[in-house]
Amino acid sequence: MKSQKLKPLIRFLLIICGLALVAVLFVPMWRIDLVAPQYPEGLKLLIYPDKLAGNVDIINGLNHYIGMKSLHTGDFPEFTILPFIIAFFAAAFILVAVMGRKKLLYLLLVLFLCFGVLAMYDFWRWEYNYGHNLNPDAAIIVPGMAYQPPLIGFKQLLNFGAYSMPDIGGWIFVSVGALLVFCTIMVWRSSPKNISRTRLAPAIASFLLLISLSSCSSGPEPIKTGTDNCYFCKMTISDVRFGAELITTKGKIYKFDDVHCIVSYLRTKDVEPQDIKNVYLSNFCKDHQLINVNKCSLLKSENLKSPMGGNTAAFDNRDSLLKIQQLYPGDPVNWNDLIKQ
């Protein structure tokens, strides 16, 4: 039936997507950049569909000292399979465009989204295994420390800042997925079978937009004891009750194990005040969620015995502070006064 056929514009966009996926076979899909004082120019690990590239040998040399396994293309079966999967989807996009069937378009969307989710999970699993399965006889051992890079975004690993993000191929994949969703919505809306479909399309678009906005959120990230390290003193965070976090306007996150550490770091002006979006302190009570310094009450007491001697606890309300003050005699303090001392 004619109503079941795709419009020429949709077919054209699908062919463009298929050709774009062919290009993915020849460019890096993902990259992990490492920056440290001893490597101001940075180190990079490039992940192609069929190999690893970049400063692999240097990174392997550094990883040897902390007990991480060496990275070798031959150790990853994904590099054998992935080029064929990409070629399959490239051919599938073109085939759906040629055949022009709506049901095939819907099937392609489901398969492509499932592949995207599985690929990201596999990447996370790879990072987790390499970051946690460490050699117990390594030259450098930090108790409780793991070196898992971020799935996407930034993470501090000892004195290295690790940035993980899509490269050219990854952005092509994202663009192809966005175009596929757009095409599917347009076809769904134009279906004459059920008018409710035209009402459902805006809801789908709103849902996808909500996911996009939530994934770009730069709110506080939970502090993980025994895993996260203080950016200032480099110690593994062991007591979440005194934790702190700084978020820049660009979304970069710095974690600290003590009010003393975050205050000391702010005084270095390593991050200019105008580049600071928010500062959070861990709630001493309840579930130790992070609360904005502008909304918390602070108690300073020598009896608190925080990890680095800041001996300052934060609370989400005044009543909680007064109750703890009976157990740990001390004085309420102001955040602005602390950073000016």
Commentary on this structure:
With 341 residues, the chain is α+β, with helices and mostly antiparallel strands. The protein has 2 domains: 2-215; 240-340, no CATH class. The protein is 44% helix and 18% strand. The chain has a 5-stranded antiparallel β-sheet. The N and C termini lie far apart (77 Å).
Average pLDDT metric: 86
Distance between the termini: 77 Å
Main structural class = alpha+beta
Query: Poorly predicted ranges (pLDDT <50, ≥5 residues)?
Result: 194-198, 209-217
Give the strand content: 15-25%
Largest sheet: 5 strands, antiparallel
* Rg, alpha carbons: 25 Å
Shape: elongated
Sequence of secondary-structure elements = HEEEHHHEEHHEEHEEEEHEH
Count of runs of 4 or more consecutive helical residues = 9
Number of separate structural domains = 2
Task: Produce a short descriptive summary.
This protein is an alpha+beta fold and 341 residues long.
Q: Which key features would you list for this structure?
A:
single chain; 341 residues; 5-stranded antiparallel beta sheet; alpha+beta
